[in-house]
Amino acid sequence: MPQTIDEKKRLLLDNNIAVWDVIHSCEIIGSSDSSIKNVVPNDIVFILENSNVCKIFTNGKKAEALYRECIKNKVGIEAVCLLSTSPANAAWSVERLTAEWKNSIIQYII
User: Fold this and answer.
1) Pairing between strand 79-82 and 56-59?
2) CB 58 within 8 A of CB 79
3) What are phi and psi of 98, to 5 degrees?
4) Per-residue pLDDT, 39
5) Is the pLDDT of residue 86 over 60?
């Protein structure tokens, strides 16, 4: 498992994985997804037009909802919702989340 930021970046780059946030800016109280309002989405169109992205995954239901609401119609690619890695999702251990993410991602890339 990568520990440092550089090791994490290398893992992503070596496996052709891009990380991108749906939200460019918003109003939010603390880290509560339910308080998010006045969302300005990040523009992913340029990235998709200039790359070979074949699948989009979201990190949790809020990211999935925002992607569907703000971006999907612009890019025409369905997103697959993965379980949230937020600390608010404390019912899931890191090991359980890792296993679930792995299973979900494998089913879509094979």
Assistant:
1) parallel
2) yes
3) -60, -45
4) 93
5) yes
Give CA–CA dist 46/85, Å, rounded.
27
Mean pLDDT of the chain: 85
Measured CA to CA, the distance from residue 79 to residue 68 in angstroms comes to: 8
The answer to whether 24 and 42 have CB atoms below 8 angstroms apart is: yes
Give 7-59 pLDDT, tens digit per residue: 989 988 898 888 888 899 999 998 788 889 999 999 888 888 888 888 888 98
Rounded distance between C-alpha atoms, residue 41 and residue 54, angstroms: 20
DSSP string for residues in the chain = ---SHHHHHHHHHHTT-----SEEEEE-STT-GGG-EEEEE---HHHHHTS----EEEESHHHHHHHHHHTHHHH---EEEEPP-STT-TTS-HHHHHHHHHHHHHHHH-
